[in-house]
Amino acid sequence: MKRKKETNLSFPKQNMSTEPTPPPAPEPRRRLRLLLRNPISLAGVALAIVSLANIFLFVLLDLIADRPNPYIGILAYMVAPAFFALALLLMLGGVVLERRKKIAPTEFYPRIDLNDRVQRSAVISFMTFLTVFVAVSAAGSYKAYEYTDSVQFCGQLCHTVMNPEYTAYKLSPHARVACVDCHVGSGATWYVKSKLSGARQVYAATFNTFPRPIPTPVHNLRPAQDTCEQCHWPKKFYGGQLKVFTHYANDEQNTMRQIRLIIKTGGGDPATGAPEGIHWHMNIGNKIDYVAADEKRQIIPYIHVEDLQGRVTEYYAKDSTLSKDQIAKSSRHHMDCVDCHNRPTHIYVPPDQSVDQSLLAHRLDITLPFIKQEAVTVLTGTYATTDEAMHGIASGVQSFYESKYPDAARNKQLEIRNAVTEIQEIFRRTTFPEMKLNWETHPNNLGHYYFNGCFRCHDGQHVSADGKIISKDCNQCHTLMSETEGATSIAAMASQTFKHPIDIGDLTQVTCSDCHTGGTGP
Question: Is residue 450 located within the same domain as residue 390?
């Protein structure tokens, strides 16, 4: 009897658990896409794309531009890279937040298995991107560092604030010397100091809290021995040099007056001769400290001199308003190059001197009657803005000749128009109403014609305890060679005595700047 074949009916075991079965883990690439699908990461991706596009565009513009533009530079190497870095942070932040939501705490950190082809490809791609990003960031950081040291960054980024300084810089003897070479110099320490100071200046410019005008002298400026003396070798200064001063009178003929002097430049290094002349002051053969009674260092009540033998001489100004106790408590300044050469680059030439230079260079027609006087008059007028000054200068010169010299107004129209253009240009480079700046706000201590300069100390008023006086003798610093007025010689080398156009008595009892203000006047 055949046995009936048994049929084995088996049923799958049912999961009696009430918890739902978790979905299978997504593949690594799919998991990354899921992690990036959140608003924060998507915003980071969008910002990264825009930033990269802007970096490429601005760098390209910077490379092909004929002249460097400060705004393109700061956008290409500072602003756009900063936004790109922010985009990467947003993407990373979004991934982290999304991972916390979807992955159990015990599996927060990813498992990397380089034997897995997908994961290995992802790791290689990430490391390649990281290497390229670090290299590009390093190059961009250096370019940003280089750009912040450029003249365009210093002078053009803040047009209103730095416009006077940048304008004067371009016309100065140091127009080819970068700003940082004098204001910062070499070395990391002073670079860091300058950038920390720059952060404060950026804040002041952003929130319009900067002073008008920018005050001088610059406090805590790097010593001249570390900057100026890298080019100007003080130990090689000696002897004298011929200097010709040309002035034009405020008369109808604009009479020219020339003074030729031998300036006793001298030197301060005993190795090249006895310390003498103007550069006796250099801190080689002598060390000089002084106390200033004002912020601009124009009033000096006390001078401390120490020679090579260590002998000290102290000079006190007889007309000082400070007592000896007050002077003793005041801070001392160590004299260096910029105490006399305080405007080596940012020079704001007084109108009187500017017009003299234009007449000498034939940019103003000397045959125009009273052009010297009228030019100085319109230049020293009161104007609220530069545009107002341009209109005032044009109308002032034109109306002067129409009312006083109608024949010249008819026959010399071209010369008058050229004169107006030249006078307007003088104003643009010496006076800045928006910053409340002109030649008077920034005294020039080199010489003593328009400002006290040398006479801050050499005034015959500074006396030591044993009766020594800092002399005001003209021949101590220069020797008169000749003096002419028009075609007439009025003084020669034999006399060695300067003759003033007007008899004002004893010249040792007055200073040039008492009358010569640089504006209207003698």
Answer: no
Q: Which residues contact 432 (CB under 8 A, 6 or more apart)?
A: 163, 164, 167, 213, 386, 438
Number of domains the chain contains: 4
Q: What dihedral do alpha carbons 439, 443, 446, 448 form, nearest 10°?
A: 90
Residue 355, amino acid: V
Closest C-alpha among 37, 43, 19, 22 to residue 107: 22
Angle at 201 between CA 197 and CA 207, to 5 degrees: 150
Q: Match 């003249």 to its residue by tokens.
A: 151
Q: How far is CA 189 from the centre of its chain?
A: 19
Q: Do residue 83 and residue 120 come from a single domain? A: yes
Q: What is the mean pLDDT of the chain?
A: 82
Q: Could you tell me the pTM of the whole model?
A: 0.74
Q: Are residues 36 and 141 in the same domain?
A: yes
356, 401: one domain: yes
231 within a domain of the structure (yes/no)? no
> Domain of 428?
351-435
For 191-204, write each residue's pLDDT tens digit: 777 777 777 777 78
Query: 364 and 429 in one domain?
Result: yes
* DSSP element (H, E) containing 287: strand 286-291
Q: What pLDDT, on a 0 to 100 scale, did the predictor assign at position 192?
A: 72
On whether both 252 and 197 belong to a single domain, the answer is no
* Cβ contacts of 122 within 8 Å, gap of 6 or more: 28, 29, 32
Q: Are residues 340 and 416 in the same domain?
A: no
Please state the φ and ψ torsions of residue 367, each to the nearest 5 degrees.
-80, -10
Q: Would the pLDDT of 78 be above 80?
A: no
Helix ranges restricted to H, 149-174: 151-156, 159-170
In this structure, the chain runs to a length of: 522
Domain shared by 339 and 455, yes or no? yes
Q: What is the pLDDT of residues 378-420, one digit of tens each?
A: 999 999 999 999 999 999 999 999 999 999 999 999 999 999 9
With contact defined as beta carbons under 8 Å apart, do 501 and 257 qualify?
Answer: yes
